[in-house]
Queue: 2 jobs
Job 1
Amino acid sequence: MAIISENNRKKHRQYGNTQFRYGLIYICITLAVLLFLNVYTSGTSQKLFYQSKQASMIEKCQLASAEIANLEVLNPTAAANAVAQMGSLRISRMIITDQFGTAVYDSLESDSALGRYVLLPEVVQALEGNDVFSWKYHDGAMQSRAATPVLSYGTLIGCVYMMEYDIQQGSLIQSLQSNILTITLILELVVVLFSIIFSNAFSRRFRRILSSMRIIREGDYSHKVVMRGKDELAFLGDEFNDLTEKLQTSENKRRQFVSDASHELKTPLASIKLLTDSILQNDMDMDTAREFVGDIGNEADRLNRMTQKLLSLSKIESQQDGDCEIIYMAPTIERVVRMLSGLAEKNGIHVNLSLADDSPILILEDDLYQITFNLVENGIKYNTPGGALTVSLLRSEDNAILQVRDTGVGIPPESLSHIFERFYRVDKARSRKSGGSGLGLAIVKNMVERNQGQISVESTVGQGTVFTVTFPTFDTEEEEL
Ligand code: ATP
Ligand code: MG
């Protein structure tokens, strides 16, 4: 018991891990997707901002450069005048330098660069003849810098440098990024929540199947697992219920068989006990004692026959098949009839054989012998003195038919459906008197079916019974084709 509960615990733990693992994989995948979307959207929005800013800043620089290029001389006064004519450019700082990089104009009044070399990288590049733009995001503001060369008749005479310090756009980008991040976090939270809910619901259904399995393992075959829905798990539940139903049926059959068998074995044993008690207690003469001992022998024979038949039944049911062979039925039937001729003679039964229409079938020779033996024996045993028994072989389409017809007592219609059950006898007293255990036809049915055959019975009380056994024929020529 301790081992079982330990196993259960282990299974539970493994199951929990699986659920956790799948949940984690799901969360990681969605997290990766969301992160990608996050980086992609904020990157794209920054790029868009960059491109529009670059275009507008360079345009402003170029406008200013064009104005400066028209000046006759580039000195602080002329530059300041030119800038004044440009109107408001809405930028934070503008520097104009000559071709050596010395500032001739600086819009910044305090800490002005006027008259000094401007060593900004944008200025250096612009003096090399390039349009330059750069930006950086710093302290919630965006700093954009642009510089373009000033060319007068193709000759570089200076450069214009502009810097814009934009808090509005900076905060726009910042809020955009923080919004995307918040949405990402909320989405991930929702994903985590849903993955927990769904994986729990999913694993709850699995656990239900598992706990049903455990209940059935403990022997409660009547238990059913309830799975709603139309998905694979519901299908699994249905299959599982079918399986347990079959288990229950076979368990019931097994219990019935054990109780029937012990009941049947008890009767001859009780007779033996009674007879031995009588011999021991009574002061009987030698002849009576001999008669009693004879009866004990008969009961022992019956026990022996019964146990042999039980063994043969369980052997068939455990599918211990031998090697099938292709045989004609007539020789086996003749052997059986020879074997039972003594019994037929004793009971005054005339046996007829009509075996001309024989066909080969694939069967265990031993099974065919047993089938024929039981049917012929019944036809003799349940016959009336002076009656007849006819064994015929027929053929219809692809079937070989064995028919055993007697003119005996017959079987009442209500018993016909039961005669193939184990231990079933129509007339217990008559059957027991003739040594019957009610197992013969159960064995016959099992053997016929395991050789792909079918058996049927027709009977009229007082007129007789016909057993018809059908096997598929096995024509060697056809099979080879
Ligand atoms: P066993 O064959 O095990 O020695 P049995 O003959 O009683 O015992 P079955 O062969 O299984 O058992 O037959 C079951 C019952 O069916 C018989 O007891 C008998 O009542 C009835 N029965 C079988 N064959 C015939 C028949 N040809 N005519 C009339 N009744 C029959
Ligand atoms: Mg029988």
Job 2
Amino acid sequence: MTYQAPPGTYDLLPERAQVFNSIRQSAFELFGRYGYLPIETPVFEQLDVFVRGIGDATDVIGKEMYLVLSQHALAKLAQGGKAPEVSSILALRPEQTAGVARAVVQHQLASPGGAPVKLVYAGPMFRHEHPQKGRYREFRQIGVECLGAAEPSADAEVIIMLMRFFAELGIPRDRMRLLLNSMGDDSCRPAYRQQIQDYILAHAGDLCAECVRRADSNPLRAFDCKNPGCQTIMADAPLIADVLCDECRTHYDAVRAYLDAADIDYEEAPRLVRGLDYYTRTVFEVQVTEGLGAQNAIGGGGRYDRLIEDFGGKPTPGLGFAVGFERIWLVLESLEALKSANFELGAPRVFLATVENAARPLAFELARQLRDAGISAELDHQARSLKSQFKLADRLKAAFVAILGPDELADGKLTLRDMATREESLLALTDIVERLRA
Ligand code: HAM
């Protein structure tokens, strides 16, 4: 029997794993400059955390959740036992905002009126979607959540930080569209939702069955339907921008003013609704114009001023975003930006080559000293000939090869070859660490 990674998942082999680490590190450094501190939450949570946070009428909850069943629960079910209590059903996280909100409430991290709590995370998320380029069942997100700030400057800060992140990764500005909308709040959205529901029912004959079915539970999702007929009908549907209440309008205008002042180009996207129910007011998404096909969103987020209360916390406004690592990878690959020196792909600084077996213990000891001094070093563990050690050093892209030959060693020396220039120099064994540190 041969084993394969499950459909929609893949192995992060070393090259890609290093790019992920490097992107993650850049994100944590950049977001750290804005005050974000790392948080890790469990990869699985009570199912109810996601249902409550994301909303049971969304595709993510309604269709895409992976439930986690213990051996014990499975055996009980197989014996015709009762279905498990709802509170004991666990699920893999489809995103991390809900888990972070749960943790913030559980540990009382945010206090009303206190300074915002700013958190950054990175890790795998799971959604049972139809796999295709840029859409996986296990994928990796890097995200931030800022809890406690209601002012529009907080929205603008988060969006500016997101765009700065993509710029630092080397994605050209003209390859990206930043879409911006306001989803309204509890005072203006219900009436808008009703308007859309009425609009869908009035056009039921021309819309797909799924849009009509969801008219009741989640009418705004009709804006995201991929069916061309539905898109034509929804293009004429009422827009939220026309019915925002005064507070939401003022907030939205202030976010735009901050972005304008910071020279951030955005497009107003009055039909951008996003697929998660917790959003209030500002929502945004960054899409790339080439290289990703239909799955062109490399990041998205928004404000969720009710979420912490929904988890039983004190009223605490919040907002954040998440970016998709795999989609960023695909974009960088299409730009050939991965080949640039931005990503340290782990070539050793020096390869220690021995001419005779007797020198192996010395090579072993020198490698230890170099690594302890913070210099990456590699050596042969398979008694290769000198020629194959050089081949290996070449393949590993070692910057230098240190040759431990009997004549040099008799004088307490070694030969150091610069693999780029082919220049060789004789060096005291005791000087190698200092020389390679330079
Ligand atoms: P989201 O838009 O569902 O938002 O996901 C954010 C990003 O994750 C997407 O823009 C995309 O790059 C990536 N992504 C989503 N699904 C997949 C998939 N199946 N395969 C590959 N990449 C995917 C959220 O998850 C929110 N929690 C963001 C947020 C944080 N809002 C407020 N705070």
